[in-house]
Design brief:
Layout (H helix, E strand, L loop, with lengths): L1 E5 L2 E3 L6 E2 L6 E2 L5 E3 L1 H15 L5 E8 L4 H9 L4 E6 L6 H15 L3 E5 L10 H9 L3 E10 L3 E8 L2 E8 L2 E5 L11 H7 L4 E5 H4 L27 H11 L4
Parallel strand pairs: 1-6, 1-8, 6-7, 7-13, 8-12, 9-12
Antiparallel strand pairs: 2-5, 3-4, 9-10, 10-11
C-alpha cells in the first residue's frame, strides 16, 4: 500500500514575517523557512503506518521552487522512501496545488493521500478538500485518529459537537489535525541517509497542469496596533462606553 504525503515550505513558525515596503507581499529574504507543522504531522502518520507494516511505501510531494528540496530532504530523513518536487517559480495557490496533486496521484496511484489541514502562511484550509473533489475520492478532514486496513480507513475527526468517526473506502484523502500525533526529530544518521534517497523533479508542463494563479493580491500590510485598555468605574460605565462610544451593543 502506497501513501502519498504533500508537504509545503513555509516561514518557520518561530520567525516574524515582514511586509515588503511597497506592500506587495511578504519579504522572505533572510527568513528561516521550514516544513509546514501540519504537514510534519502528516509525514509522521505515514511513516508510523509504514513502521506498523500497513503501508509499503511513503512518497513525499511538494510544489514550489527548487528551495523546496530542503523540506523534502527533511521528510526523507524522518522516514519517507522517496520524494517528488513539482518545480515552479509561480506563487502557487490552493487550486493549483490541488491540480498538481491530482496529476501526481494519477501517476503514482497511492491508496492514501495525507496532507496537513492547512498551511500556516496563508491559512487557506482548501487544498485537501479541493484535491479530493478533483479526484472524486472520499475525504476526512481534521483527523485526530487514523486506523488503516487493506481496503478502508477509519478516521476520527473533531467537530464542534464532539467527535465524528468516518469509514472511507480507499483511495482516500485525509487532512491532519494537531492531536493526531507528535512528529519525531530526524537523527543525524537518517539525515545523512536522506541525501542518498531519490528526489525526482518534474515540471508543470510534464504533468500537463496549469498552475497559473486565479487570485491577485492587491496589497499586504501589517495589522493595526492594538489601542491601550481603558479602566471603567463600574458596569454601568462599561455598558455606556460599549453602547455610546464603541456602538457595539
Amino acid at each position: 500500500m502506497k501513501v502519498l504525503v504533500a508537504v509545503k515550505r513555509v516561514i518557520d513558525y518561530n520567525a516574524k514575517p515582514r511586509v515588503k515596503p511597497d506592500g506587495s507581499g511578504i519579504d522572505l529574504s533572510n527568513v528561516k523557512m521550514s516544513m509546514n507543522p501540519f504537514d510534519e504531522i502528516a509525514v509522521e502518520e505515514a511513516v508510523a503506518l509504514k513502521e506498523a507494516g500497513i503501508a509499503s511505501e511513503v512518497v513525499l510531494v511538494s510544489i514550489g521552487t527548487q528551495a523546496c528540496q530542503d523540506v523534502l530532504r527533511t521528510g526523507l530523513a524522518l522516514g519517507a522512501d522517496r520524494a517528488i518536487l513539482v518545480q515552479t517559480d509561480i506563487q502557487v495557490q490552493p487550486l493549483g496545488v490541488a491540480k498538481a496533486l491530482k496529476a501526481i496521484c494519477e501517476r503514482e496511484q497511492p491508496s492514501l493521500l495525507i496532507l496537513g489541514k492547512q498551511a500556516i502562511d496563508d491559512d487557506a484550509c482548501q487544498t485537501g478538500q479541493a484535491v479530493a473533489a478533483l479526484l472524486g475520492w472520499p475525504q476526512a478532514t481534521f483527523a485526530s485518529n487514523v486506523e488503516l486496513s487493506a481496503d478502508t480507513v477509519v478516521v476520527t475527526r473533531e467537530v464542534d459537537g464532539g467527535l465524528e468517526i468516518r469509514a472511507l473506502s480507499l483511495p482516500a484523502v485525509i487532512t491532519t489535525d494537531l492531536r493526531l500525533n507528535t512528529p519525531r526529530y530526524a537523527s543525524l544518521p537518517n539525515i545523512m541517509k536522506a541525501k542518498k534517497k531519490t528526489l525526482e523533479t518534474l515540471s508543470a508542463t510534464e504533468l500537463s497542469v496549469d498552475l497559473a494563479p486565479r487570485l491577485k493580491t492587491v496589497s499586504v500590510r501589517e495589522p493595526m496596533a492594538r489601542a491601550g485598555g481603558v479602566l471603567v468605574a463600574d458596569v454601568k460605565a462599561l455598558i455606556d462606553k460599549l453602547r455610546l462610544e464603541a456602538k457595539v451593543i
